[in-house]
Amino acid sequence: MKNEIDSASNEKARIIKIASLTALIGNTILAAIKISSGIYANSLAVIGDGIDSSVDVLIAVMSLIVAKIIARPADEDHPWGHGRAETVATTLLSCMLFFAGAQLVLSSARDIIFGAESEVPSFIAIIGTVISIMGKLFLAWALYIFGKKANSSMLKANSKNMSADVILSAGVLIGLGLSMFFNIGIIDSWVAILVGIWVIKSALGIFMEANTELMDGGSFKIYYKEVFEAVKSVEGAGHPHRVRMRKIAGLWDIGIDIEVPPNKTVVEAHWISFNVEKTIKERIENIYDIMVHIEPAGNMEEEGYGLCEENLKNDLKE
Question: 195-198 contacts: CB < 8 A, separation 24 or more?
Fold first, then answer.
């Protein structure tokens, strides 16, 4: 079992490394194009778009570091392994995005409020933005494929970020067109504010997802249903309760209590719990660990945590 987990962690780390290198190279090129074209064309919105790609470069570097950490096997200080490093990195990623978006909103708002003179951006800003859109489409697709293959929340979050960047760049492109068409430079600052708000919104969404995993929360009712049905299909196992499910870097950690007939021997009860574990793994993919606690039937104590089937039925009614 340990070898399987270590092998899965190494493979995941390898995929994250490839994805991170792809994002690092791609975003470095795009950031350089957008910032240089934005400065040359005097477009704050394009420069802001370039800053967003610069943050993506930092994210890629962070991902490479995380890939090394999660590849480490469990040790005495980290008996659950190092998978949560990915979730922590995702949280940091959201904070970096939030800061970049807030800075862009504040600087653009300052120009509008204090009436800073704004020149109409030149055509080169449009060229840089079009290149950005094509590049981001490719990176969003690549990271989605890598994230799905590695079942990585960090890569999936970054893929969403890249997809948001496509819409963001498209908004910048529209703003540039309007600014040039009406010959009003301040439009660029208003577009920059909208770009910043979009970045902040994406950051908050990523943070909430990562925070849910860090707090061992989430609503995975369909998976709980699979666990209950798996237990009921095993002969000798009954009344599944105090079920707890949480994710560790995309892998499920499950705790469950079951009842067995009180006249069963320890060996018989062990094999019942073994079959419960096996059946759950057949129904749910990406299992990190399953802990089955056995109780004699009819001797259930008051439940202080976890879910039972009754909880699930009540939630589904709501």
Answer: 195/45, 195/48, 195/49, 195/52, 195/101, 195/104, 195/168, 195/171, 196/48, 196/101, 196/102, 196/103, 196/104, 196/105, 196/108, 197/101, 197/105, 198/101, 198/164, 198/167, 198/168, 198/171
Question: Which residue type does 230 have?
Answer: A
Judge whether residue 63 has pLDDT over 60: yes
Is 140 in the same domain as 60? yes
**What's the CA gap between 100 and 164, in Å, rounded?**
14
**Are both 168 and 225 inside the same structural domain?**
no
Is the CB of residue 166 less than 8 Å from the CB of residue 202? no
Residue range 157-170: mean pLDDT, rounded: 78
Q: Are residues 209 and 275 in the same domain?
A: no
CA distances from 147 to 153, 242, 249 (A): 7, 32, 12
Show which of 167, 193, 214 is a domain's final residue: 214
Q: For the segment 17-57, what is each residue's pLDDT rounded down to a tens digit?
A: 888 888 888 889 988 888 888 888 777 778 777 877 777 78
**Residue 28 maps to which CATH number?**
1.20.1510.10
Quote the Cα angle for 84-213-308, to 5°.
Answer: 125
The dihedrals phi and psi of 124, each to the nearest 5 degrees, come to: -65, -25
In the chain, the number of structural domains is 2
* Domain-terminating residue out of 214, 237, 268: 214
